[in-house]
Amino acid sequence: MEKLEQLLSSRLLPMSEKLQKNKVLAALMEGFIRTSPITLGIAFITIIGNFPFPGWIDFLKNIGIFPHVEAITNGATGVFSLYVVYSLAFSYAKQLGTNERNASIISLASFIMLMPQTVMTTITQDGKAVEQAVGALKLDYLGGQGLFIGMLVALLITRFYAFLTKRNLMIKLPDSVPPMVTQSLSPVFVVTIIFVVVFALRVLFGFTESGTIFQFFIDVINAPLNSLVASPWSIIIIMELLAVLWFFGIHNAVLQGPLGAISMTMVVGNIAAFQQGEALPYLVPSVIYMGMYASGFMGFVTFFMIRCKSEKMRQLGKLSFVPSLFNVTEPLMFGMPIILNPIFFIPQIFTQLIAGFVTWGLATTILPISLNPTMSLLPWTTPTFIKMPLSGGINYTILMVICMTIGIVMWYPFIKIADKREAELEAALEKQNEETRTDKIINAKIEA
């Protein structure tokens, strides 16, 4: 393992350092890290609100608490794209040496301008149910489904703003005008040009069948997958695509259409057959799905992080440990970050793919699984190490351990590499701070 770590370190670290000098990647990493307080802060409420205990959600609904849980969750993750747009634009503007606050708020405004701003709802009119459009923003596009478009908007609008501000298009105001007023009024021409471009984009995508840039992106991603049926191959393809897209910052919500259709087909079909005492029609695809899911369990990643040398890795590991047990992975994805971090490309992309084929091979040969499909109805926060043993007994538990072992083997060396890099950065920063403190002491003595 040490030789593998040395080999990977010698190849990955130089490449990672080179890539992270790129202003876009540096801004992406900083922008995501800045949003980690939100994902960490909401984790506890998310777990409590969806605690994997029979009847718990019904109990919260009966006492009137659940709507407030949903409100808190939607206020954090339901509009998470807004936070990413602002944070990413701020970080990228800093990299470009332009006004961070102006770039952030203009990017955020552009993002909302591109969004559909009406929602169809049903109202009662003259005693009849009538569909009517009302002015509203959909949480779908404010949350996971809008995340990738939000990233593009933040980067492109900020870059465009920086380009225009260097072309002498800013209004020159007298020195007597307060700086806050100057910074607010001087970019009026620049902002006007940006919003005209945003308007043109909105009109352009309005002429497409999708109607908006958000739906166009979702349709393009979903189109080749919508014809897939529940099968081992379809599960492996979709789960692997989820892993790849997540690495590039595209949230799983984008694929909720094809994934939801296939998963519901498997769940309903298996439960119906189970109740009739018949063979499960989607046994192997369901087993592959959970095997790949188990390999993506991030609890062991946080465990490794707690034992790291780097202070950043240790603290993030401690904060993310409990959420990861309940399948809340956003603190790691955005906090470390895993998204667009070249060090974690291999484990993020290939872990579940390997586990999928291993699961398929074992389940159809030497490790047959007897599955209780009703357990698939447990809340999504049910820990994998509880759900799988309850669903399939000893063989399913063995399969879970094998898939988790694959995850451990895949992630461990890369966590070590990331820890080494972070520890070196922290040591260099501490040395710099120490030199600064020494210089201040010397200067103070000279002045005295």
Tally of helical runs: 20
Report helical residue fraction. over 70%
Largest sheet: 2 strands, antiparallel
How many DSSP E strands? 2
Report the radius of gyration as a whole number of Å: 25 Å
The coarse silhouette is: globular
Topology order in helix (H) and strand (E) letters: HHHHHHHEEHHHHHHHHHHHHH
Question: Largest beta sheet: what is the strand line-up?
Answer: 1-2
Question: Which structural class is indicated by helix and strand composition?
Answer: mainly alpha
User: Which consecutive residue ranges, at least 5 long each, have pLDDT under 50?
Assistant: none
CA(first)-CA(last) distance: 56 Å
Strand content: under 5%
The pLDDT mean sits at 83
Structure report:
The structure is a single chain. The chain is mainly alpha-helical and 448 residues long. 71% of the residues lie in helices and 4% in strands. The chain has 20 helices and two strands. It has a two-stranded antiparallel ribbon with strand order 1-2. Strand 1 and strand 2 form a beta hairpin. The protein starts with a helix and ends with a helix.
